[in-house]
Amino acid sequence: MSGGLAKNFLMLDGTTSTARSNLNAERSALVADVLRHNSHSRQVVRLRVHGESMLPTVWPGDVVEIESCSLEDVLPGEIVLARREGRLILHRLIAPCTPNGFLLRGDSVPSPDPLFPPETLLGRIARRCDEGRTVYGAGLRPIVRANGFGVKWSRALGMLLCYCVMARRVALKLHNRRKASSSERRNPEPHADIRSADMGA
Q: Could you tell me the fold of the domain covering 10-187+195-199?
């Protein structure tokens, strides 16, 4: 992206849970530092999502680009990145920001997160990078309001996946098969699994 700083943050496999937790905290601090580095130019990071709370808008394994922004820039309905207790959270903004903070909720979780302090906002999702292509989904566009059809549709499907365990399992299985099939077509040779920063969605 023009004017942005693109970074990939790699994740080490095979580490202990304590070491992984410490590493995740260090990586999240690095991501926060990059996004806050220069308030006068847009910074961009690319991260791989590992959580399921933003289904069906963002899936585990998706790579997303996050661009820096301020609280004044974001609108309800946008998906934003925040940092709390050393963890990166990628959830949807569900109400206008106030001086006290902002409220987020995953598309497939029943209730909002606790209030986030204003300084915890790092950026907003700009795009999803799917198998070398840039993807703008109906519920993923940078400028999409809470009353937009894409957000309502994502939230409705998210609630189905939240409360119906069988639907969630089937959806994840189908998604994983599609990803695996697509990956085999593109890369028939075995390859190392290099993953970006661990980010709970």
A: Umud Fragment, subunit A (2.10.109)
Q: What is the pLDDT of residues 91-101, one digit of tens each?
A: 999 999 999 99
Distance CA(79)–CA(58), nearest Å, equals 10
Domain boundaries of the chain, sorted by first residue:
10-187+195-199
User: For the range 149-155, what are the long-range contacts, defined as Cβ-Cβ under 8 Å and sequence gap of 24 or more?
Assistant: 151/77, 151/92, 154/56, 154/57, 154/107, 155/107
Peptide bond connecting 56 to the previous residue in cis, omega within 30 degrees of 0: yes
Q: What CA–CA distance (Å, rounded) separates 135 from 196? A: 18
Provide the 8-state DSSP code for 38: -
pTM here is 0.74
> Mind listing the pLDDT tens digit for each residue in 69-93?
999 989 999 999 999 999 999 999 9
Strand ranges inside the chain, DSSP E: 10-11, 44-49, 63-68, 79-84, 87-93, 104-105, 121-130, 133-135, 195-196, 198-199
Distance (Å, rounded) from C-alpha 1 to C-alpha 4?
5
Q: Dihedral through CA 146, CA 60, CA 80, CA 91, nearest 10?
A: 60
Q: Show the tokens assigned to 105.
A: 């909720």
Return the HEC string of 102-156.
Answer: ECEECCCCCCCCCCECHHHEEEEEEEEEECCEEECCCCCCCCCCCCCHHHHHHHH
From CA 104, how far away is CA 91, in angstroms rounded? Answer: 6
